[in-house]
Structure formats: C-alpha cells, structure tokens
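Technical annex, item 7. During the second reporting period the consortium partners agreed on a shared format for inverse folding records so that results from different sites could be compared directly. Each record opens with the tokenized structure and is followed by the designed sequence. A conforming record, contributed by the partner at site C, is shown below for reference.
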C-alpha cells in the first residue's frame, strides 16, 4: 500500500495528472505534502518550474531568433511553434509555474505556522509536565511531613494508669486527662515500666 501511495504522489504522476486532470493533480500535490512531510520544501516547485522552463525553450529560441534577426535555420522550429499541441504545452507550462510558485508560498507559510504551533504545543506540554511534577513533589513533601509528625506523635504516646480511678489511658506527651474521671495524668518512666510488666 505504501508503494502505491508513494507512486501516486510521485512527481511524474503529478505532472501527468496536472496536464490531463488539473484538479486531481492539485489533490495529489496536497497529498504529497502530507505523505512526504519531511521532504525539502523546494523539491517539487523546482521540478514544476523546471519542467515549465523546458517547455518554453522552443518559444524562447524562436523569439530570440526573430528579435535578433539571426540567420540560422533551426529544423522543425516553426512547425513546433505553430502546432496546436505546443500551444497547449505553453498553457500547461504557465499553469505549472503558477502552481509551483503557489506551492512554494503555501508550503513556506504552512511550515512556519506548523512549526510555531508545534513549538507552542511542546512548550505547553512541557509546562504541564513540570507543573504536575512540582505538584507531585509538594504532595510527597507534605505527606512526608505528616508521616514524620505521626511518627513523632507515636513516639510521645504513652499508656498511663489513672491514679484516681485506675483505668488505663493513652496520652500524647507527658501530661494528659483521664477519659473516665477527667483526672490529671502524668507520664513517668517508672509507670511505663510497671505497665509494660503488667501487660506481659
């Protein structure tokens, strides 16, 4: 399939199509822009304009001979210039020049706009990625901070027996309040050891 597509948008096929079915030839040129996006911008216009100039050679020679009154007889030149086919080829050559110049202008504009849009899009994507990375970093940092706070809080969490009602309580730090009798609790290392022994 790729070979068929490559053949359809090849320069000889485009030149023939432009002669017999101009609209289809322009469609093939547009297809070539898409299919061969990496192609050098000047390749197709050079072929189109170059072909047109080759077609103009007999006419240019004929005009030069008449303008400078050169006494050289070129075989078949008058017959070529006078033929209906050559008149069609001259019109075709003009058409090729117009298409070549328009293609060059449009491709240049398209390339510049495409590159600007592409660069802008890349910049937007990079900014988005950077913002997401920064946000992820900040969330991670916040989570780490909360985890450290939780760990510190766990280190300062103690089991204390209430001296008033005898109920066991969990307090954060060295001083707390009994959940049953609202009495004041004071954490002591000795009490922790006693509690640990009782737990065992």
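Designed sequence (site C submission):
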């Amino acid at each position: 399939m790729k070979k068929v597509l490559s053949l359809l948008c090849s320069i000889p096929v485009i030149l023939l199509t432009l002669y017999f079915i101009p609209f289809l030839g322009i469609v093939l040129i547009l297809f070539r822009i898409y299919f061969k996006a990496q192609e050098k911008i000047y390749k197709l216009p050079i072929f189109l304009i170059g072909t047109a100039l080759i077609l103009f050679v007999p006419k240019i020679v004929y005009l030069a001979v008449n303008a400078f009154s050169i006494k050289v007889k070129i075989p078949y030149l008058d017959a070529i210039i006078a033929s209906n086919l050559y008149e069609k080829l001259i019109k075709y050559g003009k058409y090729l020049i117009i298409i070549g110049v328009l293609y060059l202008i449009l491709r240049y504009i398209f390339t510049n706009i495409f590159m600007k849009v592409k660069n802008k899009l890349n910049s937007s994507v990079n900014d988005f990625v950077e913002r997401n990375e920064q946000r992820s970093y900040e969330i991670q940092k916040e989570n780490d901070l909360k985890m450290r706070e939780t760990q510190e809080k766990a280190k300062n969490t103690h089991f204390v027996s209430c001296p008033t009602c005898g109920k066991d309580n969990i307090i954060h730090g060295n001083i707390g309040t009994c959940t049953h009798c609202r009495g004041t609790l004071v954490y002591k290392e000795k009490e922790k050891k006693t509690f640990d022994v009782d737990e065992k």
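The longest helix spans residues 84-155. The chain is about 70% helix and 10% strand. All partners now use this format for quarterly exchanges.
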